[in-house]
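pipeline stage [seq->struct] | target=Peptidase | organism=Streptomyces kronopolitis | residues=179
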Amino acid sequence: MGAVQNRTAYSAGDGSTPEDPGDRLTVELASVVSAARRRASRDGDRQVDTAHLLHGLLESDPAVRAAFDGGPQVARLLGYLVQRSIGYGLRWLGAIEDSGAVPTVAEGGVPGWSPAAAAAMDGALDRAHARYATRAGCLDLLAALVDDPESRAVEVLHRAGVDTGRLAARLDGETPGRE
């Protein structure tokens, strides 16, 4: 898993951070990151987590919605994610999302980001690099989110009835169209 090796890519010397990813993300994915940060702040969460990222992806990118093969899961997913601040997900308040799927960074991780969300962003960058793209896109991030079975995003996907194995296979067969 590339995210394990590249855990602190945001501070790897190129000056980019999750808040300012430089030119490592497509415009669409940079917009998703901004929306996730706003949502976390509005919800009173200390950190951007994988559910914030999933919410931004579903709201922002038609290719992400299409990855669900037109199933009714998208409406259910958005319903769960919208309910986060009024019921669903309240048990997450005040807790740091660390799925344990990747080692926790000793120096405290990426400020303002859960360890799992930072690992997902690194995974998206790794996927982009594996296909020789200079920028990670929304489908790269969706695939990276699905790759961590213990993340909040995957918990939401399961609650909405999404077969994450099938989704991952579908995403592995697709090449993100925008760079």
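stage status: PASS
auto-comment: The domain at 2-173 is CATH 1.10.1780.10 (Double Clp-N motif). Residues 6 and 67 are 26 Å apart (CA to CA).
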